[in-house]
Amino acid sequence: SAAWITSGLLTIVQVFRARIRGTKYYLGTGLISVMGTSFTFLPIARDMVIQSIADAKVAGECDGMDCKGAGMAGYGRFL
Questions:
Q1: Cα–Cα 20 to 30 A to 3, which of 26, 36, 38, 54?
Q2: Looking at residues 23-52, what average pLDDT do you find?
Q3: Distance (Å, rounded) from C-alpha 40 to C-alpha 47?
Q4: Is the pTM here over 0.85, yes or no?
Q5: Which of 48, 71, 70 is closest to 59 using CA atoms?
Q6: What is residue 25's predicted lDDT score, i.e. its pLDDT?
Q7: Between 70-78 and 41-58, two packed helices, what is the crossing angle to 10 degrees?
Q8: Are 49 and 75 spatial neighbours (Cβ–Cβ below 8 Å)?
Q9: What string of H, E and C letters represents the secondary structure of the chain?
């Protein structure tokens, strides 16, 4: 998608430091870094998995602390 292409191009600009002609300033940091789309979805996904495990415990679907498949089910709901 366009977001991934833009992220790749801006990563190249960020990694390769270039002096702006006629000034003392540079474009980019010259440091290895990755520019990407937002990762703000990760806390939401984590909370969904934790809630799925908690729901499985309440429903009695767990064997002690072992809730096989409950985390994957929560991740599946997120997707």
A1: 26
A2: 81
A3: 12
A4: no
A5: 70
A6: 93
A7: 140
A8: yes
A9: CHHHHHHHHHHHHHHCCEECCCCCCEECCCCCCCCCCCCCHHHHHHHHHHHHHHHHHHCCCCECCECCCHHHHHHHHHC
How crowded is the C-beta side of 15, counted as CA atoms within 13 Å? 10
CA atoms in the 13 A half-sphere facing the CB of 5: 2
Is the four-CA dihedral 10, 12, 17, 23 of positive or negative sign?
negative
Q: 30: alpha, beta or left, given left = phi > 0 and alpha = psi -120 to 50? A: left
Residue with tokens 């679907």: 61
Instruction: For residue 47, give both structure tokens.
Output: 């909370």
